[in-house]
Design a protein that fits this description.
CATH topology of the largest domain: TIM Barrel
CATH architecture of the largest domain: Alpha-Beta Barrel
Number of strands: 28
Oligomer: single chain
Shape: globular
Largest sheet: 8 strands, parallel
Strand content: 25-35%
CATH class of the largest domain: Alpha Beta
Helix content: 10-25%
Length: 626
Amino acid sequence: MNKEAVLHSNTETFVYPIARNQLIVRLRTAKKEIKKCQIIYWNREDSIKKRETMECYARDELFDYFQCKIIFTKVARYQKYYFWLEETHREQWYFSTCGITSVPPSEGFFEYLYANQNDVRQVPNWAKGIIYYQIFPDRFFNGNPDNDPADCKAWGTIPTRNNYMGGDLKGICNKLPYLKDLGVECLYLNPVFEGDFNHKYATTDYFRIDPLFGTNEELKELISQCHQQGIRIILDGVFNHTGIHFPLFQNVLEKQEQSAYKDWFLIENYPVTVSGDSYECVGAYPYMPKLNTANPDVQAYILKIMDYWLGEYQIDGWRLDVADEVDSTVWELARITLKRKYPDCILLGETWGYGGRMLRGNQLDSVMNYMFRDAMWDYFGKSSISAEAFDHRINTILALYRDETCHLLYNLLDSHDTERFLYVCGENPKVLQLAAAFQMLFVGSPAIYYGDEAGITGENDPDCRRCMVWDEQTKPELSQWYKKIIAIRKNHLCVREGRYRTILADNQTNIFAFVRYHEEPEIPEKIYAVFNNSPEKRKILCPVLEDGKFVDLLSDEKELLTSKPLAGQFYNQDITAYKAVISLEMQPYAVKVFIKKGGYQHEEMQKSTGGLTHNCDLLGGVGRMR
């Protein structure tokens, strides 16, 4: 037995409450080494031992990850426990704080002490699995030419770091019917506050909409119109740094060491000039001086800004720029103060790696999942990794985060800070369709960067910030594809909030498949998705968790697929209860999405869509506010 691989500690990473009487317990072991795993637990007050079988919920290149939910009649408290492990060749072991033994431990037990009210992490239910749409305001639509700058360029001009195209809040408001029809559920706007540069990440006034985008009242109207359409909206909070024309930084430039605001910034040398040698700045950009976010006055100012737009304008939350560079106590204070006033708001942080430090329950709700983006680029976009390597990477993500967090992760393919996915995949729209389908059917909250659905391409910043294309003849098949996949996501609860399991990852054929299913027995639906990430036709056998006939959700003919008896060895068969296989013929760069004929559909979804449908005209009734 690979004892070094076995890992558990009584920290929030491995044991945490999802209700005061319910605990999630996790354990890591070596890959394919443990056949069965149970937790043996008891209350130290009565010593009556109980057992709960743990499920292998994720598997990556090196490890298996086990998990179970324990439900108590009262508050979870004073629970002692250890683990029983059975290897594949039936040898049995016990794991406690004293290590791994061949006999039950008599001491050194793990212990969970008490589930306090604030230990139960509260997240906005509306954000679980929601579909985001990111908009770079200057490039989406020009709804009011009167607020264009004097040097505004013609729409569609090649973007530079400095030019303006005239997009504004009125333009976004005018295009809400388009976004509603697409199936968007939450808008994320890049900065709209007064600031330097076309991207507005160098803020000069946090309480005023930049005049090039409109007015405060126009933002209020946009928010109102979004909410009437059942669309949420979050704003970009740039609280790590300001622009050099921010009045308090100007005060430092003017008064130097005598400035009352010198401690608001991280000054390194006097006299202060606009230079990276004078103060700390973000990304070595001297025009964006970094705020001293450990300063209590700065913290109070940040919370005041966040509170103002949440309360006065009723935004639905914040996307927090470079959140992992801000002093963590800012987000802890936001959690304590803002979440009490606005428990339904979302706090979504930017990070380009693992964001677990901010997601322990005392700071943010979610993060931008660049780990997902990286894996998607490597497998679909660049074809630089195998199907199995891709499986390992996405399962690592699922293992790193709590289940509840995984459903809130902002799963992007690209953004204003990266190359467009279409550029990465060599301008092949079929590959973009594959990636978009995976993104929409995977665990989490898929995020569309404006114009991906219209076939916009582009290299890294500033080329990725091209103007939105409104020509109806441009890539209409992509737009219709997005609508179809979004409709499937909305019509099936197991996709929105269900579990995930990889069922095929074939390195030779480059076929990848997974199943989404709901852990609650009263919701028995299962959705299967199969991806041919190759330029060749493929004939494959796909294992399924049920027998019978199946409906292809992407086929106009609603092709019936008949299952065959299970025979042979299949991917993850040791941890997956396959019952049959389905014969599939896959076209190059094609996707099959299917469900058992007559399969379950959530009652609320049936009412709002008239039953299982692929008609995108019926999307309107699904994405309403909850």
